[in-house]
């Protein structure tokens, strides 16, 4: 590709092509596209029967012959080949006439139609095509008689159908008006429109002339083609033979250099094109006005958001040019980002199976203008944005995040449109009969006069008075201080200058509107990413090593970038940073160190970002969500006007060629085969280049080839980026060729490999993120994950699963392929289970396998059941759609660590999978399927709460079991117990528990992760003393079981006299191995909190810890809290557990106070609280006696006594240890613990109640303890409500 460089970069057009009917080969049915249409038509009829008729009916004889598709051929192309852009006959043929040949009679002749297309090669480089299709009379007798014969056959068949009783097989015409069952009266109408009589009718067939060009100068190419067509159809022959004009465009018209304009001659008038300089936005020559008129600003912005998030996009219209205009506009507005996936703005009929592609795509589908959206069968809609262009309507995927500052953005765009007299809402007028487009001047649409703005203020037109939205916007514009009269002046000046402008007024206006809108869009990204460079992670190793490990490397510090963004931006940005286009953009940034290397878009973007930085000089406005409007429109507009007012270069005029006498003549009305000998090669010495253009043209073209939309990847760097970025998209582009089954199979195989690779990368990325710090220490990339980001990753996993499940579907049902498969499974399972014998015994169906849980027999484990999990989702009334249900089911399965297992079970029903999927589908490739399930299995290594944390308002059943001690059974227990369960989201309030069963099931709104259980009893009856071992609570949907250890008495006169306790729980692990291991662990270590609990059973068995162990315990507890606060907020566990749980802060300080504590007689227990109360009495008395102590000391004493009094006066019966726990928690919250330790160590009561070797009497140990406790100063500790209930401090 690099060899023919100088010539390639300097020619306006590479090929001139003629397509149409090849009279040699006659009428060949276009089987593939006919078959696609036929299948589409029969799908609706045969879904019920679940069968498709044989392919031999591909020609679909039910269609009238004039409506059938026939193969078009490339009849000629000049020159034969150019080395820098090899001619792709299949692709050009398909895209020039995407539906093949069409025939008409004189009753139904149409004007010429213009459309453009793009050919994207597998490496991502692009070539543009511009085609003009018109009808020509068929002169071949054979073709006419062949058509007549087809009609005789067709009419005979129609006659049979009409005279037999109706069957479900109605002749449905997918091309013309759908005549369901033809009634007799309609027969005559049918014959008039759809008939052909060789003696009476003239037959016309479509033909197409086309230019293939390296750059998208749509307007110029359209003028060249229209003038060539006019030359053939006008009564007067053109001044020179057609060959002269074609030769001129191919060989004598160069591409304008960057930043210059060029004028050359068409057959009847001059043609002007201009190319932006390297400092401007890339070339874009399609009318944005049309896109906004067709869809409205709101819809365009939604479509734009979908494209940025790489959601599958399907455009739908009966006009090829509209498909192309919308696709090119959306991708152009993305600057500086580039669409990285399958891009086929016009999908030929024979490639319809490509909609099955399980990759992001942007494709355009031609509608026949008859069928409505409901008739369209799409393989997957779970993550599809469907745009019905002609009906101004757009269907969006669920939970699409809002583009940042959406409302202000819409307002800014609307103001720009308004200044050009365009409504910001979709304008149905632009589709009425297509009168405007029939005239074939898209410029007309921009013509101010046609919009009724003839005089006065541009806003007083009839159209605007009629439209309320405009009225509102008008008021808005006035408020923002834009003077509407000024706008009018601007228009007048442009008309005065008209004499000097070298293109028509509409064309100038199109350029002005385009640049206005594009600058507004580009400005959004420069504002949002104004300091993106700070977060780019430069590779530490050399380029080669970087490339080989590309998919494992993080190239952008996403977490830090997001933490800097305003909250409302996060849902959009966290998803956008995960896209391929963003990753490619950052890759190209890493690869270009100096400005010379940078590709065009990056250079332009960086220079704009620098400008903003200079303006803002890191002022705080960068960080806020303050909306900053675009300010550089004027200079961009001036540059364009300069080029159009003063043409920089003029190409050679067409001239007579060296042709033989008699050559170059042709019949009027027929576009001839041109003389290939004169068109096959250009001038031998390239004189024109020297004559018409300064040498500097070719000077830097070598480096600039990349610049505007050429994307020719002759650069090593580009190749690298492509390879590096081929992660999830092994297939960039469909090969446009005649598709044999083997090609289709190969394509699908690429999809399967791509899906598997994407699955591997996604699971790895999610695990790395989830494991957070440990993963970083192991060298796996960056730290931390926010809740938003976790949701983004899970949503993209759901999307991947949907794409896998919709690959190779036989018949699509519902919007979610995964949910549809699950429903089929559920149905067949329920049929099988409804055997007369009732439920089959457990153990026979592997579905009923139970999971073990370390709750032992106290709480029978939940059955592992895929169907049960589906029923849970089906019972959630908040989830309305299939896509939503599938996502919820995936989240639930991930939280239960059953995703891989459930999907394995779903796919183990081979009969069902065979019934639903074609042979080539991913789910029927056994090896890949196994690997895929294996990747998903790795999610079991981490705990996700992606269901509990997202569905916060749903009702969930909880099951609570209180387990009394087996040693001192609670069989005689007479009081009435109660519990209150608290979680991160809510708490239940007091629930009475029946004393005979000691278990209770209740339903309440999702509590979130459970943190504490308060339990107690009412002290009624004869025996109100109760020793409780633990409380178990299980979430009935997610199956999470929490264990809340207790090991204490509740009752007056026993233990510490407490009637209620606050228990802190932890998630019980449910794997079998841990259970086995736990059985071998001595209970002492398993539950360290037991240490304080043995005191009351037998004081002698109290374990003694030495001072070293106690210090270590305190250090560990404090360390846990410090670590907790250093984690990102979403990653933190339960603080309550760190304070009151096993080995928590309360336990550690309890050890401190118990060390060397004098225990009096054998059977009377003295508690730490007793010591604290005595200390309180002492302090209060010293305060009264006004002993001289410094202010600080008095302050501490006052605090201590205040807290002690408040806790003692609480109405709750929490017992002495419960009160100690409360004091420690409040002291930690208010940063007073270290003061209190210092007070107590000095207090005389300590001397009385502690041995000499006690830790509290050792000054150096007390000082180190105080220092450790001081580290809590910097943290803002918030206590859970259940810990401090009833305390008003």
UniProtKB/TrEMBL annotation:
InterPro entries per record: cDENN_dom, dDENN_dom, DEN5A/B, DENN_C, PLAT/LH2_dom, PLAT/LH2_dom_sf, PLAT_RAB6IP1, RUN1_DENND5A
Keyword GTP-binding: no
Protein name as catalogued: DENN domain containing 5A
Compartments, as annotated in UniProt: Membrane
Family according to the record: Belongs to the RAB6IP1 family.
UDENN domain sequence ranges: 54-599
Chain spans, region Disordered: 682-707
Single Gene Ontology MF annotation: small GTPase binding
Domain called RUN: residue spans: 788-952, 1136-1284
Superkingdom of the source species: Eukaryota
PANTHER family: DENN DOMAIN-CONTAINING PROTEIN 5A, PINSTRIPE, ISOFORM A
Listed GO CC annotations: cytosol; membrane; trans-Golgi network
Keywords from the UniProt entry: Guanine-nucleotide releasing factor, Membrane, Phosphoprotein, Repeat
Domain annotation PLAT: ranges: 956-1064
One record GO biological process: retrograde transport, endosome to Golgi
Keyword Repeat included in the entry's annotation: yes
